[in-house]
Amino acid sequence: MAFHLLYLLCFIVLALLLCSTMAQTSKNISLGSSLTAQNDDNSSWPSPSGKFAFGFRQIEKDGFLLAIWFDKIPEKTIVWSANRDSLVPQGSKVELTSGRRFVLNDAKGSQIWSANSSSTGVSYAAMLDTGNFVLANRNSTYLWESFDHPTDTMLPTQSLQQSGKLFARFTVTNYSTGRFIFSLQPDGNLMLYTTNFPQDSANFAYWSVKNTEIGFQVIFNQSGLIYLTSENGTILNTISGNPIATQDFYQRATLDYDGVLRHYVYPKSSSTSEERWPMAWSTSSFIPPNISLSIVEKVGSGGCGFNSLYRVDNTCACPKGYSFIDPNDELKGCKQDFVPQSCNAPADDFDFQKVPNTNFPLLDYEQIQGSEDSCRQSCLEDCFCAVAIFNNASKCFKKGLPFKNAMLDSSDRGTIALVKFRKHNSTSKKKDDSILIIVGSVLLSSLGILNFILPLITYVVVSRMYSRKAVAVPPNYQGMNLKYFTYEELKEATREFKEELGHGASATVFKGVLACDEGKCVAVKILDAKQVRESDLEFNAEVRAIGRTNHRNLVQLLGYCNEEQHRILVYEFMSNGTLASFLFGETRPNWYQRRQIALGIARGLLYLHEECSNQIVHCDIKPQNILLDDSFTARISDFGLAKLLRLDQTRTITGIRGTKGYVAPEWFKNLPITAKVDVYSFGILLLEIICCRKKFDEEAEDQDQIILADWAYDCYKHKKLHLLLEKNDEAIKDVKMMEKYVMIAMWCIQENPSLRPTMKKTIHMLEGTVEVPKPPDQSLTSSILFDTAH
């Protein structure tokens, strides 16, 4: 009897434990429950621990995604979505109806999506701590689950069955279906392949695993391993071989928009955060190892789009003389910005951009043997030739447009791509006009007295017309993909310069809407007409500096007006204003956003210093000159003080440029100026980003805190960094990462320019790929800068 009582007691305790476990891993959502898309953070259902949430995320203005996301980290990373190809407006509703259906309707009540469960016996829904959203019956049997319908991401405990697929998103910020698929085929082969975009049918397999046994499922287990098994459970292949405990790290495997399947990890607390694993998503492993060597399509554009190049960091770029067809979709490819070579004209106007370690396999139309010079000459004299590939076997392969399948192989030192471009973007229009004028004059000359008068009138009118054009479109802007606007066009676009966005010492910026470009918003910068000579210098500097640049962390110059006394520049409109208003406003941006902004600014500066065709020193890096786009990506602007450096010129001497407080010491000492002056400015700006306070604060209660650079250094030296982060609990929790950022800033503002890192080294330190050494123990130079700087 005692034995039976003990047995019964054990059974009850076990049952209670099981019930407790179930209660901890699910939180039932009853019939009739609903969520409405709105501009706040209340339209979601959290998992029991709050690790995940299900609900609406605003992606664009009045555009919402019904999604699942990591909810305990600053970056609310989306791992699943229902309506990725059709965002819904504010007021849309998802509801678990009393009729036991789970549906998403837009604001007008039209059905956008529904969870097609195999049964009508749905009793409740639940957002689980695994990241799985389920519909269940009264017996807690799952009738539908999001794990069975993945979008671009797998999570620990999730599996991918035969015919299961992950579809990459379209771009970093656009969650709609993209160009790449990860799939376990019905025959058991595991593959990555491109699609016949915009259709989702398979095109080209660029990575695959084939086995003697048939692959049955891909498993992402609790230990952080991702592997392919057979039907009997035998592991056939390991996809990610870096086991990382899920109790210490959030994890996900995502097929990114660029076609790479990456295994990401994120420390759950600062105590598990190390140099290798900072408090951010870090890549644990990825496939394929080098995607630029993997995609060689007979039909299709390749990994980077037609007429594109691969950069070392696996991002896409356009060759000289080309620009992105759509800057928001780099994989769409690049277009020529110059008039193609005529087959009946000399080739003197053309030259080549030499791109090392680069190839464009397939579509060769001719092959010759010889030297690099003979390869150049052959392509130069051939009007069909757009690119020539020369390899270490002295072979030259000629290709026409469009060229594709860009490959970058740093180990292949012998292969170079020679991309043809026009030196000056001259057009045939002027010649054609001249021919028409001559023909007209000859015809008119047969008409008696008009013989003399009309040719004279024609000459005067045409001369004046070309004279006006020469003033409006200066020849030294040719070769840039810029639109010329008349003053009247811009006056109309800005409603007579009604809405001012901001102003500085020599310019005012207004918001405008281009009727000629489907109502696109622009920022119209008018240089001060009272200082025409100075305005001309700044205007020319800004157009030349930014006209040929193209990078996601630079504000794009769209066009200009140079009409009489009017000097106007037309830029992309940045909806989230300046970094200054973002950092120093009433609402403090979160720590993750600030780190991403700092990294974006650093990448933009690296492009200016080392990657664009003309090296550029910006000379005026400060929060007011950093703008934020719709997704709060940092975009460097205001190139009015920029200094161009020739490729063979690393330093120059010039008058002081820039804004007090951000100006490097060498400006005051009349020393040669290099790109390191921007590194110094970036260091001061980085401190402002870390602390969310200005470089100089006269109202600081403690005199030691007035100059931010000095105060930050003292806090670092005396191990009191927490003083920098008052009322910033989020950053205090990540104080180890914050200390690293302060150390990076200290290196950037070293008085000796040779001690400052390059922007490339700075990026590596920010990303955590290199260790940040202890900065020198020396007094800072801020006293030089701030004696009159406020």
TrEMBL record:
Residues 1-23 form the signal peptide. Residues 20-148 form the Bulb-type lectin domain. Its EC number is 2.7.11.1. One of its GO terms (cellular component) is membrane. The keyword DNA-binding does not apply. It holds the Pfam family Pkinase. Keywords: ATP-binding, Disulfide bond, EGF-like domain, Glycoprotein, Kinase, Lectin, Membrane, Nucleotide-binding, Receptor, Serine/threonine-protein kinase, Signal, Transferase, Transmembrane, Transmembrane helix. SMART domains: B_lectin, S_TKc. It is a single-pass type I membrane protein. It catalyses: L-threonyl-[protein] + ATP = O-phospho-L-threonyl-[protein] + ADP + H(+); L-seryl-[protein] + ATP = O-phospho-L-seryl-[protein] + ADP + H(+). It is found in: Membrane. ATP binds at K525. Belongs to the protein kinase superfamily. Ser/Thr protein kinase family. This is Receptor-like serine/threonine-protein kinase. It comes from Rosa chinensis (China rose). The lineage of its organism: Eukaryota, Viridiplantae, Streptophyta, Embryophyta, Tracheophyta.
